[in-house]
Amino acid sequence: MSRNVYLPYSVTSEKAHIKSMEQYREMHKKSLESTAQFWSEIASQFHWETPYDVNNFYSYNFDVTKGPVQIKWMEGATTNVCYNLLDKNVRNGMGDKVAFYWEGNDPEDYSKITYKKLLEEVCRFSNVLKSKGVVKGDRVAIYMPMVFEIVIAILSCARIGAVHSIVFAGFSSDSLAERMADCKCKVLVTADSVYRGDKLLNIKSLCDIAMDKAKNFGHEVPTCIVVRHLPRLYRSMNTSNGTNGSNSDIIDLHSDVPWTDGRDYWWHDEMDDVEPSCYPVWMSAEDPLFMLYTSGSTGKPKGVLHTTGGYLLYAATTFKYVFDYHPGDVYWCTADIGWITGHSYVVYGPLANGATSVIFEGTPFYPDNGRYWSIIEKYKVTQFYTAPTAIRALMKFGEEPVKKHNLDSLKVLGSVGEPINPEAWLWYYQNIGQERCSIADTFWQTETGGHVITPLPGCTPMKPGSASFPFFGVKPILLDESGKEIEGVGEGYLVFNKPWPGMMRTLFGNHERFQSVYFSKFPGYYCTGDGARRDEDGYFWVTGRVDDMLNVSGHLMSTAEVESVLTEHPDVSEAAVVSRPHPVKGECLYCFVTPNHGVTFTPKLSSELVKKVRESIGPFAMPDVIQHAPGLPKTRSGKIMRRVLRKVAINDREVGDISTLADEHIVEELFKNRPEKS
Ligand code: 6R9
């Protein structure tokens, strides 16, 4: 792995919020030693209808042996998150500021919405929800493309105290049905259809199937509100007041949407009949704000629950410091709002800071492979936040598509979702960041609510592939197999023994499971399920899920480590490594390798790769198998489904549920491509 250290963009700039490692260390120390004071100073920037008590700011128990696990921040105080994101900014004179630019799948479809207009639309939709009987504490399921209405729906829930439960609009009808039945949603908000690239997806038809299936799980969804998205011609709607058009601009090209009278309602019809103002419901700081399902290693998805006060503080603070946000910046996070990254860093964090962001509906490859770079140029994006899987996919096309665009506006580049291999990091740094931007490799989880380990631009010297140091209020701990804390240099389970404000509070309707999944392995500690290494400079290197760890001849190593060596080869685009049982070594390495565009997989390439791993990590790490993979089995959020690869490695066709894969056919291809017959 590269040991080079790169200096951040604004080492010489006076503007960065955190200007030096000394300042970072001082603030980090304060956040751990005077936790209540640290966060209450931040809380004072928000509106509290009932004030918080600095002397009773937070409490927690992480030790299952001492009673139920509980985490509370500012209990008793009341506020409203939507009020803090919209009303407060409008009152502070930012009403005419653009909250979001919207860039459609088709480059000719674009629009924008101001803070004032967003507030008005949110008030209207809050009234719509109320008219459907939604009250504080009710769940509202959202299954929508990346359009303004998804933000409006989210914030309307927050305004009236309803708990939103977003299901990424790439999940199957089965997954949607299961999640709607689990949270017993009172309303489902969706859209008719959406284009992704040149593919038309009929979302509403899929919702109908899901609502039918939910009945089998014992839940009937009473109301479904549908945005008529497809027929809108946004081009003609770029009105100067920053809206995405009035209903008269909607041309009905799509009259065949499946419909159930009495249950289904058009968004625009409902919005016509309601008042543009709605008083917010004051919520206790520990009242639920939203839930979001994340996959469990076994059984049903887990409904991670986040609450009001702490999440607001944490999303706002991480956004400000990790992206070094300043007024006037234009920020773009490519994540779908259906994932936690979209919740915290498309919606809540940016709006809490009064930021202007881009929302992009399409894909990086449509109409061509330079789409991301053209959007950065078009909106003069200053902070760009994406995933390593996207970076690696775009690297395949080389520098030509990048060079066609002016990326001079960029200051900070973010990465999230998986460990970023140094090869991709360097490409991102050199070609997108032009060696002057900071890279924030942000480690966090649905459960953590916001970034927990990350470099800070203008402050942290960067090591490619390392998420570096903890954010304020966070103290990472490494444990060995016996639960003993590892001091100094070492590798182990990544855990935490105290909460930060944005941490999840429970799993919806299942506190037992919450305790057993996260707090039972090592009593007293929250277990991330990831492994990490601390190097001699104190940098953290997240090595991947603990179940991705391998033990070859007694040597502990992570799949990510081997993968990054493989992807350093100039002919390799992507690699995934799994362990396979081995009679002598215990486990051995089985590597799946996707060559670059136009490169043929040959025995020569295979032996070069074996040699490279052997040389980079050590003879014990020598792969037993290098298999050509035309593609990797990835979930729609871009995560490699390693359990499928483990099955391919042992030629076991019982692969289990692969419905969340972006492309299920790849699995058959991989079995066909096995280099061995057994
Ligand atoms: C935000 C998000 C969480 C898991 C997490 C870890 C992996 C995310 C990472 C990273 C290394 C990073 N992960 N960011 N690993 N470096 N910068 O992705 O949430 O979907 O819940 O996934 O993703 O394994 O435990 P979520």
Helix run count: 19
Helix-and-strand structural type: alpha/beta
Radius of gyration: 24 Å
Task: Calculate the mean pLDDT score and round it.
Answer: 91
Strand arrangement, major sheet: 12-11-8-6-7-14-15-23
Strand proportion: 15-25%
Share of helix, binned: 25-40%
* Number of extended strands: 30
Straight-line distance between termini = 34 Å
Instruction: Tell me which ligands are bound.
Output: ligand 6R9
Task: Extract low-pLDDT stretches.
Answer: 233-254
- Biggest sheet, open or closed, and with what strands and sense? 8 strands, mixed
What gross morphology would you assign? globular
Question: Can you give keywords for this protein?
Answer:
alpha/beta, 30% helix, seven-stranded mixed β-sheet, 678 residues, eight-stranded mixed β-sheet, binds ligand 6R9
Describe this protein's structure.
The protein has 678 residues and is an alpha/beta fold. The protein has an eight-stranded mixed β-sheet with strand order 12-11-8-6-7-14-15-23, sandwiched between helices. It contains 19 helices and 30 strands. Residues 294, 340-341, 416-419, 441-446, 467, 528-530, 542, 545 line the site of ligand 6R9.
Can you lay out the helices and strands and say which pair or pack?
Blueprint: H1 21-33, H2 35-43, E1 58-61, E2 70-73, E3 78-79, H3 81-94, E4 98-103, E5 110-114, H4 115-131, E6 139-143, H5 148-160, E7 163-166, H6 173-183, E8 187-191, E9 194-196, E10 199-201, H7 203-216, E11 223-227, E12 264-266, H8 267-272, E13 283-284, E14 288-294, E15 302-307, H9 308-322, E16 330-333, H10 340-352, E17 356-360, H11 371-379, E18 383-386, H12 388-395, H13 400-403, E19 412-416, H14 422-432, E20 438-442, E21 476-479, E22 490-496, E23 506-507, H15 511-518, E24 526-534, E25 540-545, E26 549-552, E27 555-558, H16 559-568, E28 572-582, E29 586-595, H17 603-616, E30 625-628, H18 642-649, H19 665-672
Parallel strand pairs: 4-17, 6-7, 6-8, 7-14, 8-11, 11-12, 16-17, 16-18, 18-19, 19-20, 29-30
Antiparallel strand pairs: 1-2, 3-13, 4-5, 9-10, 14-15, 15-23, 21-22, 22-24, 24-25, 26-27, 28-29
Helix pairs in contact: 1-2, 3-4, 4-5, 6-7, 9-10, 12-14
Ligand 6R9 binds at residues 294, 340-341, 416-419, 441-446, 467, 528-530, 542, 545.
